[in-house]
Request: fold
Amino acid sequence: ARGGGVYVAGGRASLLGSRLSGNRAAPTTGEPYGGGLAAEQSQLTISGNLVYSNTALYASGDLGLGGGFYVSGGSAVFESNEIRNNVGVQGGGLYLRGGGLFTLTNNVIRNHPEQRYGSGGGLNLQSDNAAIVSNTFESNAASIYSGYGGGVYAAGNGLRFERNVVRGNSARRGGGLYASGAGLTIQDNLITGNWVNKAPGGD
Reply:
């Protein structure tokens, strides 16, 4: 199941000044992608939207990529959006992977709840050469059992992570930010009030 609210397959597309809420990619079979919007091999501009209370969750609760947004391949610019209170196992707010450049600027990504499994409570990013600049990641949570990056999980080379506020997030490892890869630039951010937690009996 792909795109509870919107599905984009290839080409250029823009989502501007819209509200996406109450959409669900929640099948009983197959893996759910993108509660609010799913896109594959597309060039996206996502600006000035309010995206909240969308769900990407398999019936058993152990699968689901991108409660708000799922983008695979292509490229995307996210600017001045409010993304909050969405549910997804990997990437409660956004799940972005592969393809070209991903740029996130001046977004507020907050209040994505912990699921039993999964990393990147606010953002799960798996791509090279992404730019994450002047965003707020607040009160997001990754799994206390196996989750990395309560606010942001970023895996890839050449990440720019600059002038962001990362506050009040939690995870098993990397309460605010978990980043891996070569050539990372993490500069001029406010990272405060985040914490790590663990399941009972964990190491």
User: Anything to note?
Assistant: Residues 149 and 174 are 5 Å apart (CA to CA).
